[in-house]
Automatic annotation (TrEMBL):
This is Aminopeptidase P family protein. Gene3D superfamilies: Creatinase/methionine aminopeptidase superfamily, Creatinase/prolidase N-terminal domain. Residues 326-537 form the Peptidase M24 domain. The keyword 4Fe-4S does not apply. InterPro entries: Creatin/AminoP/Spt16_N, Creatinase/aminopeptidase-like, Creatinase_N, Pept_M24, Pept_M24B, Peptidase_M24_C, X-Pro_aminopeptidase_P. Belongs to the peptidase M24B family. GO terms for molecular function: aminopeptidase activity.
Amino acid sequence: MPSCRFQSFTEPSDPAQVAGRVAALRQALAAQGLDGFVVPRADEHQGEYVPAHMARLAWLTGFTGSAGNAVVLADRAALIVDGRYTIQSAEQTDTRVVTPVRMEESPLERWVEQNLPAGGKLGYDPWLHTVDGVARLEKAAAAAGGSLVPVAKNPIDALWSDRPAAPSAPVKAHRADYAGEDAASKLARIRKALADAKVDALVVSDPHALAWTFNIRGGDVEHTPLPLGYAIVPREGRPTVFLAPEKITNEAGDAIGAVGEIASPAELEAQLRKLGAAKARVRLDAATAASALATLIREAGGTPDAGADPIALMKARKNAAELAGTRAAHLRDGAAMANYLSWLAREAPKGGLTEIDAVAALENERLKTGLLKDVSFTTIAGAGPNAALPHYRVTAASNRAIGPGIFLVDSGGQYEDGTTDITRTIVIGAPTPEMRDRYTRVLKGHVAISRLVFVKGTSGAQLDAFARLPLWQGGFDFDHGTGHGVGSYLSVHEGPQRLSKLGTTPLEPGMILSNEPGYYKEGHYGIRIENLLVVEERRIPGAERTIYGFETITWTPYERALIDVNLLDDGEIAWIDAYHAKVLEKIGPLVAGEARAWLEDACRPL
């Protein structure tokens, strides 16, 4: 079996362990006088990617997806996940003990309200829930006639005998020419935002915000260069960064020390109590700040102010240096994709390739650039029915041969100058008419987003339907957002910007988003097409409003064999032909030999 530097193919969960672990947790809860416990897929920073020692949901239930909650009561247990993970959750847990529940049908709070017994005490770890999340759970527990009870120590930790150690990756400085703005300038903007909001200090609880503000990067979670830590930024005076000193390189220490102080994470609670004692009004990020932080401030006499972290929008609007870097990263990545897809086109029809072979080959092509720091997420490489799982992760147990039919590959790279994310769906052999119809509908939605112009103030929720309309017209849809924000050598999933029914943040120039509609026929095949886009201002003669549109920055051909030109209108054909011409222009000089010949053929006008 081929190996990868950044990915493994071991089975991450074992359903056979679930029954014993749930029983042990119930016994521990009973000893504490609790009738139930909520286990979120979260660490104390509410990040999408959690370090191994914080993966309590996976340890308990076997479920390894990126979002979900478990609730364990004395007589029942639920694993609540969204539509992306309906199939995966049922496969990874022991359904005799834990019942998978679709979040769309029964959100966490509704499940608690309907299942917590009257008088029941539902425990929770206040470091793993936000202030708003706790308020919703309290309301649900009260509606059931029960109560929500914080616990000082998470009961799972005492049961987890082989729990991994906390991460200790070095914290490094991020190059100034990639960051495009120094930390002192960023802190001045943050302080102005605090003054405008009439708060005395900000607790930086999101590690992405910490990394961006101080121009540092780490390696505490998989595939995202994050240092896990906190900072307190006062409206006046120097900030304090809470990171284990032994993790900080000299260069990063000098960079932080130029603008602030460095303290051990153990000192955070004392500093929060000090703010509280000074009667400070302290802004907490409603999206990532743990309820425990608010309690520490409030009990000391301060006022926790849960709201928007001003850093989130600052970080989302990429500056010129960040945009130049991500464009360069996408050219490099596009050349790697061309080399990879040309290899796949030659080798897959011969038979003998597996999903793992395909993952390893793609990672190797990115490594050949000499600049790859990591993949930006675990590669999704699904053949046949595995392609119908939007967040499929191949393991040695699930590894399928790549045979005739659909093959979907969703992948990305982490480079110091930018983060990439691209999905292409290809076909081995002759596609069925149905496959061509579904692919072309997805492509039409993808092109519709790419061509959009919209007035300033428009949010992703207002644009999401354009990607779905061609599917809706056939009676189809997909159960994920059309697109997510993307960071600059940070997380491949960045907020607050998103193309989604839930995307309420107005889109602004400099924001990077994915454009990835899909179609999934359970048990048969799946289709997704993804490019990254940058929001930019458009000059329209005579326009009375400020108008924005999208710049496409991903350069890889679409699958010609799956395109039914009869389903495309003239504008769509013209856009696809123009895109392919640009792909050849931008990537052509970076590839040679068989890859160049493949690229020229793939980029022919429709």
